[in-house]
Amino acid sequence: MSQELDKRPGELSIKKSSLSKEQKTFNKLIQQIATLRQELAELTAVLDKQRQHYIKFIYPFIQQLTDLRGQLAVLMNGFMTISKGLSDHEKEDLRLLILQLLNDIFRYQQTDPEGELLDIFNALSETSYHDINEAYLTKLRAAAASDETLPAPVSTTKRERYKEEKERLLDALRRKNIQQLYRQLAKFFHPDLEQDPTKIQLKEELMKQLVIAKEQEDLLSMLQLEIQWIEQEDRHPESLTNDKLHLYNTTLKEQVKDLQEQINSLFNHPKYEFLQGFAKTPQSARFIDWKSEKNNLDHLLYGFRDIISGLSQDTKSALKVLKSVLKHNT
């Protein structure tokens, strides 16, 4: 039964009137990798573009809003200790609202949370701010565990150390994926495994390019080299045996998983994580309506100033304002 390669730019698949299970899997995985590579490249470009727009047009409003949130959190916290005027249910709603304000503040702050705001958070939260960060970093450390030793943080403040370690751990995950792919491809490209002088020369060249791509941490180029090798090696379709396809498929499945992990973790990188305030997923970040977001921020600034003014009145009047806020936010 005849079979032939169906080649398109940057893609390889097998055509056959009746494909084996391994051949069907091979075609599916190659298409998945091509799709994921394109998604990763496009998503990175989108997040970079949105980041630049945020810095230029939105961040000044965020700074103003962060200051107002701080003032509001302090004023609201003063009502947590009053003996009359608020029910237990209302105080619990108030506690959660204050924590929400503080979380929003800490997300955008460039320095360590400290002083009164940090004290309020630790007093109202079931888990301290430090423990929350450590728990998150522990998960990252476990995911990034590898043979290489990570450099120690050199920053001075706690927040800088946390941000730097988070960046290192996420980068370590990416380097781990690259290292795994390098080891897999090095087995394919090793020239000592060949007898044919033409293939030896081809593999030597591919190995050189693989080393360069690894040193540059260029995952996409490494994947392209793999496709190039499969295409070169299997120019004669009869040589593409099920045993060889099984070997390829095992490697390709790992690469699909690695690419999916990179896409999923990209949105959590400190470079982009602030965009989570405007989009639920990295894919939806491309649809952020910055004009509407700016209008929303204008309304928030006006609303926060109005609430702060109301809570600064006498206790009776302030409680009336606070109850209205709690009712609106629950």
Alpha-carbon distance between the two ends: 68 Å
Helix content range of the residues, please? over 70%
Low-confidence segments, given as residue ranges, are: 1-5, 146-157
Tell me the radius of gyration.
Answer: 27 Å
What's the helix-strand series? EEHHHHHHHHHH
- Largest sheet at a glance? 2 strands, antiparallel
Mean pLDDT: 79
- Shape descriptor reads elongated
Structural category is mainly alpha
- Strand arrangement within the widest β-sheet reads 1-2
Put simply, the count of helices is 10
* Number of extended strands: 2
Strand content: under 5%
Would you mind describing this structure in some detail?
The protein has 330 residues and is mainly α. The protein has helices at 21-77, 88-108, 115-124, 129-143, 158-189, 197-215, 219-233, 242-266, 290-311, 315-329, and strands at residues 3-8, 11-16. The chain has a two-stranded antiparallel ribbon. It starts with a strand and ends with a helix. The model is unreliable at 1-5 and 146-157 (pLDDT under 50).
